[in-house]
């Protein structure tokens, strides 16, 4: 890739999966880019760097990890794989553990010699555009940062571009419910859930029941005296295979010192509440006024990635619910071609109009505003990938990724208790096999041209 005559210094915020993948692509062109990754932890891995610790760490900073001890990845590794870097062949199970996922990311970092570009134990305080411009006419950026063990030491450096790779699972959302302060039992967000054994013999209410709510409620039910999962999902959307011993109720609207109260006025005494209510986007280091976030819609952003006014400020963690690693790979390809001047974006007015049209189309489909960047239904993720691939002039991801995703979502619906027991084999760009069909309750997939044996 030929490009600018002057090497661009690129700041990458975060050494989790998206930051590592972005760094791999940047470091592949040393004549064009000089990447520097800022990572708050001692090690790479981001979210996948597990710790028993919750709340704040020894330096007073929020613990990033949102994993629980017995977590298995909720999609098969066959659609998690970073293109060009396969999982170890001896890992013959499709649903890997959190430990294996972290090991994979560390193998990736070592294989591409990425650690030399990472400044560990560094907290980014502020990112702001400068009036000074680079050779390409784009604003330069001033980063303010500190070593986490010496926060009084404030440093600054200039960069030609910034990749925001801090993820979207760090800022837990807990709804404001009447009487919350009165409740005397345990109450935690799923971010701080670690061990299901801690709920042994208790009555537990779980608020929210998508992926984390489903998984955590089933784990806790192995030890708890009773589990009530409280959600607003429609009957046809909720897995009919969900354990019958877990009671389902609508979201509670009030809390007392020892109970939760439902919309019809009925109540249930509980010892603990787990909020599986998701996360809110958070970019505390971005200078005021750079972005706005309303109802979880981030503006002004084009293709869920590029800041419309500052096109050298690029986000990697905005889209939700898709196989992240391969999509980060595609987003990184797009981002470095954009920085290298190989992609011409529409005018600012056209980008704003296109982004607004996509948002309005989602609202017309019945999606709530907070689904502005959601990619988990239909073929939305494939369409997103196809759009950036077309703009970037490269091939999109293989169709088999969407096909397996569809099948997995179908199987999770029909057979949620046993989903992690299925194993898959990719046999081509548009074909795959389920290696354990005897365990399946449903092999009627939304995908086409699937090879099943």
From TrEMBL:
Keywords: FAD, Flavoprotein, Monooxygenase, NADP, Oxidoreductase. The keyword NADP applies. It holds the Pfam family FMO-like. It comes from the Eukaryota. Coiled coil: none annotated. Its EC number is 1.-.-.-. Belongs to the FMO family. PANTHER family: DIMETHYLANILINE MONOOXYGENASE. This is Flavin-containing monooxygenase. The lineage of its organism: Eukaryota, Metazoa, Spiralia, Lophotrochozoa, Mollusca.
């Amino acid at each position: 890739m030929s490009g600018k005559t002057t090497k661009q210094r690129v700041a990458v915020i975060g050494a989790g999966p998206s930051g590592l993948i972005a760094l791999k692509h940047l470091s592949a062109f040393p004549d064009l880019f000089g990447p520097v990754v800022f990572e708050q932890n001692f090690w790479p891995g981001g979210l996948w760097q597990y710790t028993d610790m919750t709340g704040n760490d020894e330096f007073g900073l929020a613990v990033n990890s949102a994993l629980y001890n017995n977590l298995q990845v909720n999609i098969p590794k066959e659609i998690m794989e970073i293109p060009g870097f396969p999982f170890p062949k001896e890992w013959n199970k499709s649903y890997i553990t959190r430990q294996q996922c972290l090991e994979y990311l560390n193998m990736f970092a070592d294989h591409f010699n990425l650690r030399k570009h990472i400044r560990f134990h560094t907290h980014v305080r502020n990112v702001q555009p400068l009036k000074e411009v680079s050779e390409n006419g784009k604003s330069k950026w001033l980063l303010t940062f500190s070593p986490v063990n010496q926060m009084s030491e404030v440093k600054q450096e200039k960069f030609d571009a910034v990749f925001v790779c801090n993820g979207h699972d760090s800022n837990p959302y807990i709804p404001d419910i009447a009487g919350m302060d009165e409740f005397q039992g345990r109450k935690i967000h799923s971010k701080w859930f670690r061990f299901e054994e801690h709920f042994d013999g208790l009555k537990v209410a779980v608020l929210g029941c998508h992926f984390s709510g489903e998984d955590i409620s089933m784990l806790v039910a192995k030890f708890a005296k009773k589990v009530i999962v409280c959600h607003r999902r429609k009957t046809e959307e909720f897995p009919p295979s969900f354990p019958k011993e877990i009671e389902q109720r609508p979201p509670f609207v009030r809390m007392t010192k020892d109970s939760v109260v439902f919309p019809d006025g009925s109540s249930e005494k509980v010892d603990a509440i787990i909020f599986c209510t998701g996360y809110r986007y958070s970019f505390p280091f971005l200078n005021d006024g750079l972005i706005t976030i309303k109802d979880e819609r981030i503006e002004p952003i084009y293709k869920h990635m590029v800041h419309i006014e500052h096109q050298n400020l690029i986000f990697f963690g905005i889209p939700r619910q898709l196989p992240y690693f391969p999509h980060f790979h595609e987003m990184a390809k797009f981002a470095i071609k954009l920085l290298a001047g190989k992609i011409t974006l529409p005018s600012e007015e056209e980008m704003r109009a296109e982004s607004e049209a996509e948002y309005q189309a989602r609202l017309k489909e019945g999606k709530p505003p907070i689904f502005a960047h959601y990619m988990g239904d239909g073929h939305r993720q494939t369409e997103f990938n196809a759009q950036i691939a077309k703009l970037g002039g490269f091939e999109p991801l293989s169709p088999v990724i969407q096909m397996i995703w569809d099948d997995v979502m179908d199987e999770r619906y029909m057979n949620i208790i046993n989903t992690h027991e299925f194993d898959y084999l990719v046999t081509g760009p548009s074909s795959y096999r389920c290696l354990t069909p005897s365990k399946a309750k449903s092999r009627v997939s939304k995908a086409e041209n699937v090879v099943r044996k």
